[in-house]
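Cross-check.
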Amino acid sequence: MSRMMEMEAFATVVEEGGFTLAARKLGVSKSAISKHVSALEARLGARLLSRTTRRVAPTEIGAVYYDRASRILNDAGVAEALVGEMQSSPSGALRITSPRDFGVHRLSPFLGGFLDQYPDITVQLDLTDQPTDLVADGYDLAIRVGKQPDSSMRARKLTSYGSRLVASPKYLKMQGAPDTLQDLARHRLLAGSDTVWSLCDTNGAATRLRVSPTLCVNDGRTQLEAAVDGLGIAYLPDFLTDRAVVRGDLQVVLPQAPAKESDVYAIFAPGCHTPPKLRAFLDHIAGAFCGHASCAD
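Predicted model, tokenized:
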């Protein structure tokens, strides 16, 4: 006789308060329930139920056994539900948050292919450079750039990108090109809300440079256009500047200094089970980045 069947029969008797109601709930005969419970008590060598003419209740040891057994049965039910869910087609609403520039220029282009492949999934993409709380704000996934200090969350590296100093040929002809990072202090600089630039010097050593921008705007595209218009030197991700550099609208400033690399991660809540909709998105986007640029580790 199955231990799980014995356990389920006993737990149902406790929950329903009697053998008749337990049999009705499980869709078996009352005698079958009685046999399962008797077999369980015999195997354990303990009386688990106190039976009177009016009611059935767990004994002290039966109450202890029921507490643990109910957890085991619940876990078994969850496990079976997960198997069914994992074999079903991913569906449902997926809420994602991403930094604005990365979301617009690197993440958004891959969403069409994902939605075509999974028509039962809907995506809400919130673009913000403000800090967000993944759990409190109700997001399934957050895109983060840089180091990931929060060990309470799960992280999957998606890709990396470089950032570099750029300016228009017109600006460099008028103002001259800087030879060192220190020379930037005499130039017109374009920056976002972060006025501390993480750079690499000509020897490859990381350094942090506080800048005093002539134009400060918290939108990478606007900074790019300002740089193309000759308003100054900007420090921008290569996914924003690549096309302008190829066209000749921008030139790389201090090309002898190595480009700074930033890692991009997908952050999601911990747990042994990843919902199919989230797992499908993670696999799709990781594959898209791997085929489009450098693969994640």
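Residues 3 and 40 are 8 Å apart (CA to CA). The two ends are 49 Å apart (CA to CA). Passed to J.P. for a second look.
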